[in-house]
Amino acid sequence: MRVGYLGLGSNVGHRRAHLLGAVAALPGGVRVVACSSVYETEPVGLVTEQADFLNACVRVETALGPEELLDACKAVEREVGRAPAGVRHGPRVIDVDVLMLGSVEYRSARLTLPHPEVLSRRFVLVPLLELDPELRLPGGERAADALAALGPGQAVRRVGPALV
Question: Which among 126, 125, 102, 140 has a CA at the least distance from the CA of 2?
Answer without folding.
Answer: 102
